Amino acid sequence: VILLLNRTMASRRRGRDKKAAPRQTSNVFAMFEQSQIIEFKEAFNMMDINKDQFISADDLKEIYSNLGKDVSDDFVAKMLSEASSSQINFTMFLTLFGEKLQNTDSENVIRNAFACFDTEGTGLIHEDKLREALTTMGERFSDDKVDQILADAPIDANGYLNYEEFTKILKSGSKDKDDL
φ, ψ for residue 160 (rounded to 5)? Predict the structure, then answer.
């Protein structure tokens, strides 16, 4: 559960509140909803400093420089090697993001990991039990990090986490408390 939560939370930070459409064809544009493609295009255009419709090593170095980071040519080359190219066009940009987003754990995997702590099969885990596991087992989280993870969790008045609903939140983003 701890490793899955860590990967899922990292995935959420990368693609905050976005849900990839199921991949049905090899067309990268079919992997995303139109609104997501528009957002990716805006991000691509911000990264394309010289506006040549390619993200190049110079563009990446400029982005890092604007963020106050001085990066080496080797660092930039390694980033571009993921694209197997010296520059990235928009289609490759989408492909890279699609691959990263598809490498997240499925809802089933996360739900089954939580089920290990649900000895009675109720779909509920007491918050204290989960908190203890997250702070003492595997990759141990700090109390602050656990608070952050559980901030959007559907925990009832008796302190029980509905992990079915929490799994959906982890995979698709936080919901308003009224929706739970």
Answer: -100, 135
Provide the 10 A C-beta neighbour count for residue 99.
12
User: For residues 76 and 59, is the Cβ–Cβ distance under 8 A?
Assistant: no
Model-level pTM?
0.44
pLDDT tens series, the chain, 180 aa: 555 565 555 555 554 444 444 433 347 777 788 888 898 899 899 999 999 999 999 999 988 888 788 889 998 888 888 777 788 999 888 888 777 676 566 677 788 888 888 878 899 999 999 999 889 887 788 999 999 989 889 999 999 999 999 988 877 665 544 444
Alpha carbon separation from 89 to 51, 58, 98, 107 (Å, rounded):
11, 14, 14, 32
CA 78 to chain centre: 22
Contacts with 74 (C-beta within 8 Å, 6 or more apart), sequence order: none
CB distance 131 to 149 below 8 Å = no
